[in-house]
Specification:
Length: 336
């Protein structure tokens, strides 16, 4: 039987193998970002997404591991997307669960806007929640605060005032990140009523959640509804750098409840914490597709003969050591 990945031991050679696996999976995100970049600005969201999916699947299947997709782009009947439950890798090596979004920000890529990413996280088998492809209410803050300083059941005003008190500032110094959607009008109104400043984003709520743990962004809190799979991915990142997260699944119809039930969800009103969504050590990786606040995007340099190089920037976060690395990759362009 394949060995189960274990991120809790320091002893070599397991630690060396875990590090090698991280580097292998960085290459997966890089390949997805490079393939998708060819469609940036083309206006075709599906083509951009499909290019990232195909490249990510091919790269994953070349790795010596027994991988299982627990957060993907849909169910088995929605292939050729990387679907929930799909096996990837050679079938030999560590048994790991994988959460991924080959193109986080399809609209961003199609319109050549900032912050499109290729995102992937992995953990030992059973280490991440099999979240259904539904919406999720989300609330996130960065590290350094006591537990209970914010709560998903509180109003935006209550969360702002409590966070401001814990931070030792006026509510007007709190900056909240929210997806710019009509469904968030009440949240935005409540935040501004409390005196907070609102930073609206068009897409890419994985990066939005991560920004709460990056003081240089000025983001203190993230709130609003977004995809549940992206919530698990964001929690994998927060697991590595610290922070708090609460989430609750949102169901729009009976079919979504049925899909959740098939994945083992029994309490449809449960309020999930970060450790509920990612229960073990994890590794989070993101590669920039377009330039953004988190990462530089793919860059291609060519001469008149068509020779040149491609460059990427990736973020690698490891929860066991709370290590954050930025990796730059440069290689010759492969001619078609």
């Amino acid at each position: 039987m394949p060995e189960t990945a274990d991120f809790t031991k320091d002893a070599r050679p397991r630690a060396a193998r875990d590090f090698d696996l991280s580097l292998d999976i960085v290459r997966v995100a890089e390949e997805a970002a490079i393939a998708c970049h060819a469609h940036v600005g083309g206006g075709d969201e599906r083509a951009a997404d499909q290019a990232a999916v195909d490249a990510m699947r091919n790269a994953l299947n070349a790795i010596e591991m027994d991988g299982r997709i627990v957060i993907g782009e849909g169910d088995r009947d929605e292939t050729p997307m990387l679907y929930i439950g799909e096996s990837v890798g050679t079938g030999k090596g560590p048994a790991i669960d994988i959460a991924l979004d080959p193109l986080e920000g399809t609209t961003l890529a199609a319109k050549a806007m900032a912050n499109a990413l290729a995102v992937i996280a992995f953990a030992p088998r059973g280490g991440m929640l099999h979240a259904p492809d539904t919406y999720m209410e989300k609330l996130a803050i960065g590290p350094g605060y006591p537990e209970g300083v914010v709560d998903l059941d509180w109003t935006p005003e209550e969360n702002v005032r409590s966070l401001a008190k814990a931070k030792g500032v006026a509510p007007s110094e709190i900056v909240a990140c929210v997806l710019d959607r009509p469904r968030h009008d009440a949240i935005i109104t409540g935040l501004r009523k409390a005196g907070a400043r609102v930073h609206l984003i068009t897409d890419g709520d994985v990066a939005g959640v991560i920004h709460t743990a990056q003081p240089e962004t000025g983001i203190d809190i993230y709130m609003g509804q977004g995809g549940a799979p992206e919530g698990v991915l964001a929690c994998a990142a927060l697991k590595c750098v610290g922070g708090q997260f609460q989430g609750r699944l949102v169901f729009r119809n009976a079919d979504e409840r049925s899909r959740a039930a098939r994945l083992g969800v029994t309490d449809f009103d449960r309020k999930y914490t970060l450790n509920d969504l990612v229960s073990s050590d994890a590794v989070f990786i993101a590669t920039g597709i377009t330039h953004g606040t988190l990462l530089r995007g793919v860059q291609k340099e060519t001469n008149v003969r068509g020779d040149g190089f491609v460059t990427t920037e990736s973020l690698v976060m490891i929860s066991k050591t709370h290590t954050v690395r930025r990796l730059s990759m440069r290689r010759p362009l492969v001619k078609a």
